Amino acid sequence: MKILGIESSCDETAAAVVEDGVKILSSSVNSQIMEHRKFGGVVPEIASRRHTENIISVVQDALGQAGLSLGEIDGIAVTAAPGLIGALLVGVNFAKGLCLATGKPLIPVHHIRGHIAANYLAHPELKPPYLCLVVSGGHSHLVEVLDYTSFHVVGRTRDDAAGEAFDKAARAMGFPYPGGVILDKEAQRGNPHAYRLPQPKVDGSPYDFSFSGLKTAVINLVHNAAQKGEALNAQDLAASFQFTVAEILTNRFLLAARDLRYNILAVAGGVSANSGLREMLREKCLQENRQIYFPPLSLCGDNAAMIASQGFYEYRAGVQAGMELNASPSMPIDGCQWNSILPASM
Ligand code: KG4
Ligand code: ZN
Q: What would the pLDDT profile of 44-83 be if each residue is shown by its tens digit?
């Protein structure tokens, strides 16, 4: 079954064709990062306009790369939640238009479920159940993946998402938006033990994380040094911050794995590209004899192949939407309520 995936939840306009949830036939991503960099973050209004301008060529590119016409596609999967509402609406309405014109099934996909599915594209042997650490720009969750469309959240951030913490710390260190990937590069040349940074715990919730105290500690360090006219070593600070975030995430993730008895683990979302996190998790999983999966770097960030993959599993589970489908800026990963789920037989 060939699914066309469409993604426009933030600052990437993307389309892809994936066969049977695991085989990428094409993937096209148009990133707006350079435009938003001028403003230090994503400007929702600009994002929506660029999606509108770029979506036709991105979808045409994905079909062209796959060597397929729209008629040869079996279903159209689109990110319908969560994300920037104006940005989501561009993809959702475009997908609705395509489905109206062709009679193909319209499949709504939860963006974070898509990030998790990125792992199936690279590791077809990975099958639920397993425990997944989801770390993106807007979300940080520890999720039991019970089945391809059945999830149970066991831990979450109480404040900033991991990617948000990376971006804010990076900004304080003077790196341009989006700072996470630049901080990662700088950290590779720094000493991770140069600065002692706090690891806030969440009382009574052993699998929850909190990053705002850590972020504030970095911002205060930078400001205090500037006030005293002292020089900070940005590479050492980046390495220390990255090491601390990696420890917070790794400790919670492995504690949950031990308690809930998961030997198969996966990581998903933009921050799964982080070299420090990958290294620490690989090392600890090797010691504890657990198997860990990461998406390839090309599929860690937002893309439509992951949406097409998850769309396949959603459709197989009977999820299909009608023309009333709306986008939603927020929606729990373990309680997707599309406002127009049709019975699978329709
Ligand atoms: O999953 P994603 O592409 O978008 C959302 O769904 O939010 O995640 C984007 C986030 C940004 O905060 C970005 O700075 C962060 O992922 N990120 C990284 C790295 N690459 C991307 N953070 C740390 N290290 C990286 N190598
Ligand atoms: Zn994302």
A: 999 999 999 999 999 999 999 999 999 999 999 999 999 9
- Return the CA Rg of the chain: 20
Angle (CA) 75 4 30, round 5°: 155
Pick the range with the lowest mean pLDDT from 77-81, 133-137, 228-232, 337-341.
Answer: 337-341
Taking alpha carbons only, the member of 56, 161, 165 closest to residue 111 is: 161
Between the CA of 72 and the centroid of ligand 1 the distance, in Å, is: 34
Domains within the chain, CATH numbers bracketed: 2-116+300-316 (3.30.420.40), 128-295 (3.30.420.40)
Ligand 1 pocket mutation, candidates 12, 134, 136, 277, criterion most atoms within 8 A of CB: 136
Cα separation of 106 and 311, whole Å?
9
Of the chain, the end-to-end C-alpha distance in Å amounts to: 18
